[in-house]
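[RESIDUES AND BACKBONE]
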Amino acid sequence: MTTASSADHPTRRDFLFVATGAVAGVGAALTAWPFISQMNPDASTIAAGAPIEVDLAPIAEGQDIKVFWRGKPIYISHRTKKQVEEAKNTPLKDLPDPQTDEQRTKPGHEQWLVVVGICTHLGCIPIAHEGSYDGFFCPCHGSVYDTSGRIRQGPAPTNLPVPPYSFLSDTKIQIG
């Protein structure tokens, strides 16, 4: 008769070693989890810099909306054909900060203007559809922008900035 060696059959001692090792591994992972997860940015930080999607379908022609991206107001204007033509036909020599309307809009989507709604003079928030050019008017210091967000009168040195954006479809854009 032959006797079985401990290598052939696991013993209780082998089971206790494996069970102890498994419990220690799970305990180490559970202990490390809070330290690792605290290195991730919180939700408000992620939301502050994350791109946003905007549905353009409900915006009627001639209407603007204001959304916020990275804590900044963004004006999205659905310009009329008349506003687009006026912006395109403005001579560059009449502009303190010359930019064509084509440089400020996306090809094939000229009716949509997307600009950061912060006056480039002292950081005030201009009012849409106001002023001599039916664009934006900053009531604080009198800067007047046209329907393309270009400075036309007043102390502001530059045009309203255009944020990075792209069209996801004909009725949806992503800002950021």
Q: What stands out?
A: The first helix runs from residue 12 to 37. The chain is about 25% helix and 25% strand. The two ends are 79 Å apart (CA to CA). The mean pLDDT is 89.
